[in-house]
Write a structure and sequence with these properties.
Number of domains: 1
Shape: globular
Radius of gyration: 21 Å
Helix content: over 70%
Strand order of the largest sheet: 1-2
Length: about 350
């Protein structure tokens, strides 16, 4: 009986033993502690109204966190995420303001954003540009497109004809929870399945762990890198559509600093900036911590500057801890080999 149970561990044991799950459990405990603290500071924190608004607030961070996590898994980074969010918001709003059917506008916007992701992937994989430089360039270009698409002006209201669009991406409710959150969860489920259950996911991890070994193993590294940047652009596009639906207008500065939020959601949840490590479940917890901090500090009366400083410190500490742990592990391996 004992031998059989050891050879066939239960579902819970397999779940907990996943690589990266230790970090997820740790940050989940931190999330629970944060919620308890903010609940004591202000009892309104746990009201149903605040919880539903909090879940909707977490949705954009989760989406861009998923996209950034995919890129980080390969050992790269995407600084253009925030600008692609702004580009998505402005293109979709401008088209709708000019009478284009909202769902046609969504498809055109998606195509434009995916082009940016594809260009990012080509610049990094085939042109061998450092990801920081490549995506810094496309970040500026995408922001410029967001500014020029409506003549350097924010758009007017997208109008009553876009009521269905706004309901689908933002204000509609399913089971009492806003649709924006459900969109984020569905997208997370799809990409989490890809990372955990498919060959594509294994190739992404392999590319981030050791790119040369991945090539020797038959992984199409260039294709994999292009793929993760396209995923990142897709997530940024959907975030931009949610932003447009939330305000009912296109704003040129939409998505500003979102690349920071994306990295925060990823690294707080245990995704390594060095590549090849972490799981998307951690990104959910990381996005939740970000949302709870923003929401809870707002209830506590903390100014925006203090909130940003706290988030920045947490990101730096999370990345520093990751570097220390990874460096320690590599030293241990070298000592064993010697």
């Amino acid at each position: 009986m004992n031998n059989s149970s050891e050879k066939n561990p239960g579902t819970l044991q397999r779940f907990v033993s996943q690589k990266g799950m230790g970090q997820v459990i740790t940050v989940t405990v931190g999330l629970v502690v944060l919620c308890i603290v903010f609940g004591f500071i202000n009892t309104n924190f746990f009201t149903s109204r605040n919880i539903t608004n909090l879940l909707r607030q977490i949705a954009p961070t989760l989406l861009i966190g998923v996209g950034q996590s995919y890129v980080l898994f390969t050992g790269n980074i995407d600084l253009s995420i925030g600008s692609v969010v702004g580009m998505s918001c402005m293109i979709s709003a401008t088209l709708m303001c000019h009478g284009v059917n909202p769902w046609v506008a969504v498809l055109i916007t998606l195509a434009c954003c995916l082009v940016v992701g594809y260009v990012n992937g080509i610049l990094v994989s085939r042109c061998k540009l450092p990801p920081f430089i490549a995506t810094l360039g496309t970040m500026t270009i995408a922001r410029g497109i967001a500014q020029i698409v409506n003549g350097n002006y924010n758009t007017d209201s997208i109008g009553e004809g876009a009521k269905g669009f706004r309901s689908f991406f933002y204000s509609g409710k399913v089971l009492g929870i806003f649709s924006a959150f459900w969109i984020a969860i569905v997208i997370w489920l799809v990409f989490n399945y890809i990372m955990g259950r498919t060959k594509t996911g294994r190739h992404i991890y392999a590319t981030g762990s050791n790119i040369d070994a991945a090539r020797l193993s038959g992984v199409n590294v260039n294709h994999t890198i292009v793929y993760v940047y396209v995923v990142s652009a897709f997530c940024a596009c959907v975030t931009g559509l949610i932003t447009c639906a939330s305000t009912g207008t296109g704003t040129m500065d939409a998505g500003t600093s979102y690349e920071m939020y994306a990295v925060a959601a990823s690294v707080i949840g245990g995704v390594s900036t060095l590549g090849g490590s972490g799981i998307l479940l951690g990104t959910v917890i990381g996005a939740s911590i970000w949302g709870v901090l923003q929401n809870g500090l707002q209830f506590a009366g903390a100014p925006v500057a203090i909130r940003n400083i706290i988030i920045g410190i947490i990101v730096v500490v999370a990345v520093l801890m990751d570097v220390i742990v990874r460096t320690g592990k590599s030293k241990t391996r070298r000592n064993k080999n010697n």
